[in-house]
Amino acid sequence: MKPVAIIGGGITGLTAAFRLEQHGIPATLFEAADRVGGVIQTVRDGEYLAECGPNTIMETSPLIGDLVRDLGLEDRRIYSSDQTGNRYIVRDKRPVKLPESLLEFLLTPLFSCRAKARLMVEPFIRRAPADVEENLASFVRRRIGREFLDYAINPFVAGVYAGSPERLSVREAFPKLHALEQRYGSLILGQILGGRERKRQGGVSSKNAPKFSFDQGLETLTDALGQRLKEQIRTGQAISEITQRNNSWSLGQAGDYSAVLLALPAFRLAEMQVNFESKPVNLSMLADIQYAPVASVVLGFHRHDVAHPLDGFGALNPVVEQLHSLGTIFSSSLFPGRAPLGQVLLTSYVGGLRAPHLVSKTPDELCDLVMDDLKTVLGVNGEPTYRHVFVHRRAIPQYDVGYDRFKSFMNELETNVSGLFFAGHCRDGVSLVDSIVSGHEAAGRIANHLKKID
Ligand SMILES: Cc1cc2nc3c(=O)[nH]c(=O)nc-3n(C[C@H](O)[C@H](O)[C@H](O)COP(=O)(O)OP(=O)(O)OC[C@H]3O[C@@H](n4cnc5c(N)ncnc54)[C@H](O)[C@@H]3O)c2cc1C
What is the Å distance from ligand 1's center to 259 Cα? Predict the structure, then answer.
């Protein structure tokens, strides 16, 4: 059997190659960079451990645990401690704990009495017609009011998409929220009734899902996949053209394959030359998918130089607070072994669609901006003992209103172009869980296709 070609060696492509191997299907993975892992990149610097890209995996799908187990990494997985359940939102330049119970909600200074009263009306607001695609900001204003948009949704969106609620499609970017309204007619009722249903089915909500990393950071996962697939991986090989001929796919000098999986960012997919049945297949429309730029600024401090207890996951900055950064993760509170004894490690993000120009600043300037925020919000009063800055010019795809056309385009190509498959963050969701599930499911679709044509 000719092998399957997988193009792109981020977590999506690696997962797909690993799962294909388990289906007994040989695969060769091509990666443009000199390392696999894509945006997952961990830097170990003495006793500091900095994540340049993602920090945590949320275990919302059983496929995640399966992958960790199958790679023999269970002993190296570290769950974030229970004490880091607190999440802070900045209001009036101070971190305020996000309420977790009805009592906390009633007492919190995060929302005004007026906003709390407005929330009570939510179950009585009519649902939007199912076929109307609404942006997240308008959805939230309509259902729960402006203040929740400013102090709950805006910072949350900054944390997940580094994007803008005015542009993101509630149906595409937050399908669960959209489904709650459509199914229960109310987010509040949906939370209660959906939670009961989920409990019965043994599911886990993202809020309650365990979060984890590994003793040597998230790169442990992609390194382990890289090791397992060593013989099948070709790094430093950017593929720019694929041609289907005589029932197989040719990658030019790189050989012939039974099928091709494209596990690439949209802006690279758009550049790919695809030839099928002697005709070009134009992928250039995928260049219209917008990406938010993000700079990760990782700083170490002596513990006594930070006034805040850092007893949580981190603090998110609403745009109305006019800070420079999107928010900060309390990295050394989340996982042990990220900073030397007596020190702490904080990871802040700058840029996003909120302030894309900021990522063009020098590392020194980025550190200064973040220091300004940390002094104000967390009471930092000493110089950093460690710093690492990493800029992603095109970090996270934006599932804006109208995104469905891109997904339909990729799905139609999968149906009509025999042996061509798509997976990854621009098709199946932007989180690591989404990418792992995407790689896993793509391997299943490829296995079915090969069975059919056998
Ligand atoms: C700063 C940041 C923080 C994040 N934080 C979190 C988090 O905490 N938790 C979470 O769940 N998610 C997080 N995410 C999202 C998550 O990391 C990504 O969605 C996921 O890693 C995407 O994986 P992927 O394999 O689809 O794409 P990528 O990681 O982008 O991999 C694509 C690969 O394709 C390669 N490639 C490109 N062109 C070619 C070519 N022509 N030929 C061959 N190879 C090519 C690239 O070099 C790259 O290695 C974060 C993302 C960023 C950027």
Answer: 22
